[in-house]
Specification:
globular; alpha+beta; 7-stranded mixed β-sheet; binds biotinyl-5-AMP
C-alpha cells in the first residue's frame, strides 16, 4: 500500500532530537507510516555514532520521517538512503549549483556540506518494519558555531532566505515521488539517478584506507551500499562506512 509522506505531521517547538522522538513512537507502537516529525528547535540533534548536528532554532529543516518499508529485503536497505539523498539533492539543486550526494549520507554544494541524513532502521525477523529517516538541511542559518568542518546553507549560496514551510513541502513531495518509485519496484531508475548525482563520481582524487593513501576514482555503490573505488592499477575496492576517507 502506498503511504503518503507528510499526511500526518507532528510539529514541535523544541525536541532534543526528532529521530529520538520518532524512534520512541515506534517503540511504543503508536505510529503511522508516512508521519513526519518536524522540530523548530533541536538542541541535541544527532549524526552518526556520537556525532552531533548543529541547527540554530527556526532557521533550518530538522525533521524525521517514519516509514514501514516491509517490501524491501533487508540487504537492500541502502535503497532508502538513496531515495532520501536524491530527494534532498533535488531540493538543493533547485536553489544552488554544484549539488552532489556524498556517500553515504550527506548532500554537498561544491565541497561543503548542506545536509546530513540519519536513518535508524528496526528489523523484526526478516522484515524491515520501521525506518526513521532524519534529515537536517541547512536553509537560513548564516553562521555556524560548532566544529563542523565545512557547513554551508542555502541562504549563504542564494543570498536570500527561504520560507521553511515551502522548502519542507517541496522536500516531502520529492520524497513521496521517489519512495513510490521504490515501492513500485523501480529500483533501477533510483540507482541510475543516484549514480548521476554522486559526489566525485568518475573523478580521480585522493582516498585513504587501512592500507594507506591512494589515487582512486569512484565507480558507484554496490547493491548493499558499499562504495566502489577503482585504483590506478585497475583493481576495485569496496568499502563500508568508515573504511575509507575522502582526502
Ligand atoms: C549526519 O551525520 O550528517 C546526519 C545528520 C542528521 C541530522 C538530522 S536533523 C533531524 C534528525 N534528528 C536528529 O537528531 N538527527 C537527524 P554525520 O555524517 O555523522 O555528520 C555529522 C557531522 O557533520 C558532525 O560531526 C559535524 O562535523 C558536521 N555537522 C554538524 N552539524 C552540521 C551542519 N549543520 N552542517 C554541516 N555539517 C554539520
Amino acid at each position: 500500500m502506498t503511504v503518503y509522506i507528510g499526511n500526518r505531521r507532528i510539529e514541535l517547538t523544541e525536541v532534543d532530537s526528532t529521530n529520538n522522538y520518532a524512534t520512541q513512537m515506534v517503540s511504543e507502537g503508536a505510529w503511522e507510516p508516512g508521519t513526519v516529525v518536524i522540530a523548530h528547535a533541536q538542541p541535541k540533534g544527532k549524526g552518526l555514532l556520537t556525532n552531533k548536528w548543529e541547527s540554530e532554532a527556526g532557521k533550518n529543516i530538522t525533521l524525521s520521517v517514519l516509514l514501514a518499508p516491509e517490501f524491501l529485503p533487508i540487504p537492500l536497505q541502502f535503497q532508502i538512503s538513496k531515495v532520501v539523498s536524491l530527494a534532498v539533492y533535488q531540493v538543493v539543486s533547485m536553489f544552488a549549483p554544484n549539488a552532489a550526494i556524498k556517500w553515504p549520507n550527506d548532500v554537498y554544494i561544491g565541497s561543503n556540506k548542506v545536509a546530513g541524513i540519519l536513518i535508524e532502521n528496526s528489523i523484526t525477523g526478516s522484515l524491515l518494519n520501521s525506518s526513521v529517516v532524519g534529515i537536517g538541511l541547512n536553509v537560513n542559518q548564516v553562521e555556524f558555531r560548532s566544529d563542523a568542518p565545512n557547513p554551508v546553507s542555502l541562504v549563504q549560496v542564494l543570498g536570500c532566505s527561504l520560507e521553511l514551510s515551502e522548502v519542507i513541502q517541496i522536500l516531502l513531495d520529492r520524497f513521496n515521488e521517489l519512495y513510490a518509485q521504490l515501492e513500485d519496484g523501480h529500483s533501477d531508475k533510483i540507482d541510475s539517478m543516484y549514480l548521476d548525482c554522486l559526489y566525485r563520481k568518475g573523478i580521480w582524487a585522493q582516498y585513504s584506507d587501512k592500507l594507506g593513501t591512494y589515487n582512486g576514482k569512484i565507480l558507484g555503490v554496490s547493491e548493499i551500499g558499499m562504495l566502489q573505488i577503482e585504483r590506478e592499477n585497475g583493481t576495485v575496492s569496496e568499502y563500508h562506512f568508515k573504511e575509507v576517507v575522502f582526502l
